Amino acid sequence: MNIFIDNKSGAPIYDQIYTQIKNQIINGTLKADEALPSIRNLAKDLRISVVTTKRAYDELEKEGYIYTIAAKGCFVAPKNVEWLREENLKKIEEHLTEIAKLAVSCNLSRQDIIDMFNIINEEEQ
């Protein structure tokens, strides 16, 4: 598991850890039932407080991404495909809402946005 802490980022360290682990679970880098580093080991590796690491793990558990077994550690929770799809749809809707606001401020039409999307989509293929 790779975690990078960006000290120049405005995001809190626990949130950076939470986000990176969450993304690795969603994209399949971390597999269901795979053991995560212990809270202490991760804190030591990242040279941060155990409290910070614990907070990130607590958030991940609260959101259903990981589960804890006493005296064994933390593990990646099995994915609920429908739930992950809903999470991604929610993100897409948030981005589209922001795009709509920006388009209004730039006086872009719906067709302008569709054309931009098509150009970007063609470049990625």
Describe this entry's structure for a reader.
- With 125 residues, the protein is mainly alpha-helical.
- The chain is built from five helices and two strands; from the N terminus they run H-H-H-E-E-H-H.
- Strands 1-2 form a two-stranded antiparallel ribbon.
- A hairpin with a 3-residue loop joins strand 1 and strand 2.
- Helix 1 (13-26) packs across helix 3 and helix 2 (39-46) crosses helix 3 (50-62).
- The longest helix is centred in the last third of the chain and has 25 residues, at 81-105.
- The protein starts with 12 loop residues before the first helix and ends with a helix.
- The model has no long low-confidence stretch (mean pLDDT 92).
Summarize the structure.
With 125 residues, the chain is mainly alpha-helical. 60% of the residues lie in helices and 6% in strands. It starts with 12 loop residues before the first helix and ends with a helix.
